[in-house]
Design brief:
This is TnsA endonuclease N-terminal domain-containing protein. With 230 residues, the protein is α+β, with helices and mostly antiparallel strands. It has helices spanning 52-62, 110-116, 118-128, 147-160, 165-176, 184-191, 195-207, and strands at 32-36, 45-49, 67-72, 77-80, 86-89, 93-97, 102-107, 136-140, 182-183, 223-224. It has two domains: 32-144, Trna Endonuclease, Chain: A, domain 1; 164-224.
């Protein structure tokens, strides 16, 4: 066996941390899971979602460079409802960021949140939330998800699975020589790698090696900027 061979035995992804069970089939939702290798974890783990809105929320969270860990369906929390009775709630996600800040995230379609008066319920949950559980509570609806950033997060999730150290290295060397804004198409052409270079550039954006406008979709015509530190 050569020195380049990886002797590390393959290990399956960790199972989801979800605590809430749901029926195997439903006409009203789209359930599945993402695989994510989070900085705080030794190996990839399943992140379960119960709707496309939850999936999009998870992708945007996973695209953040300051995200350390993400739990889907964390343990339930108790709160006092409007009748004065003890009720329980399970957040859709609990995110931990660099520095230890934790954010509990509830995901609901805008119309449903308004119909249920969920913002009032969430305020009650926030008031009774144990300090160790989360520092902040956030409601995510389809109205709060930026379309362009969502598109880029989808790309990143796909391209992270395309491990290509050679392309990353070549593109990294080409970017290191750039001191002015440059077009993705030009750098892809200079690399001679075609789509491999495009995928490497998307990974580089989220690694902080180059800057992009997150208010616009990433295409071959996108103009990128060198890091601000240069």
């Amino acid at each position: 066996m050569s020195e380049d061979d990886d002797e590390t035995p393959w290990q399956p992804p960790q199972r989801s941390t979800g605590t809430r069970s749901f029926p195997a089939r439903s006409r009203s939702s789209s359930r599945g899971f993402l695989l994510a290798h989070l900085p705080a974890e030794a190996r990839p783990r399943q992140i379960i979602y119960e709707s496309n809105l939850e999936r999009q929320t998870a992708l945007l969270l996973l695209a953040r460079r300051d995200l350390r860990n993400l739990w889907d369906q964390p343990p339930k929390v108790a709160f006092t409802d409007k009748r004065g009775q003890i009720a329980h709630h399970i957040f859709d996600y609990l995110a931990e960021f660099d520095g230890g800040r934790r954010v509990a995230i509830a995901v609901k379609p805008q119309a449903r949140a308004e119909r249920l008066g969920f913002r009032e319920t969430l305020a009650r949950i926030r008031a009774d939330l144990p300090p160790h559980f989360a520092d902040e509570v956030v409601l995510v609806t389809e109205k709060t998800l930026p379309a362009a950033a969502m598109h880029i997060a989808e790309l990143l999730h796909m391209f992270r699975a395309c491990h290509d150290p050679e392309a990353d290295g070549i593109v990294g060397d080409l970017m290191a020589a750039q001191y002015r804004p440059f077009c993705i198409a030009d750098l892809v052409a200079d690399s001679g790698l075609g789509g491999r270079a495009f995928r490497a550039l998307v990974r580089a954006i989220y690694a902080g090696l180059v800057r992009a406008d997150f208010d616009s979709r990433i295409t071959s015509a996108t103009v990128l900027l060198p890091p601000e530190s240069r």
